[in-house]
Amino acid sequence: EDFEKVIARGKEGTYYIDDGNELEFFEIIDLVKPDVIFTGPRVGELVKKLHIPYVNGHGYHNGPYMGFEGFINLARDMYNAVHNPLRHLAAVDIRDKSQTTPVIVRGAA
Prior knowledge:
By secondary structure, this protein is mainly alpha-helical. It has one domain: 3-Layer(aba) Sandwich (Rossmann fold), CATH 3.40.50.1980. The chain is 45% helix and 6% strand. It contains five helices and two strands. The protein has helices spanning 2-9, 22-32, 41-49, 67-82, 85-89; strands spanning 37-39, 54-56.
């Protein structure tokens, strides 16, 4: 009944997954092509393999996401996920000698 209520409130073109498996999740990611994903740790491990930034909404390591201060925490975590320099390095195959490792310089003026 709750799931039907959620679907009734959704907009046309919205995808709903109820306890989906990895294959279903990969299919949705391929269709939507998200910039960032807000999820839990299980799906987050899958997203890492695709080099898509994500925020672990179940972690609460950096504070809750409730109220004004919570929104600031969420915005900070989303920014850090999208601009994490390690995410760019994850796509580099260190066994391939023809690839050059990207150099990331922070704080250079």
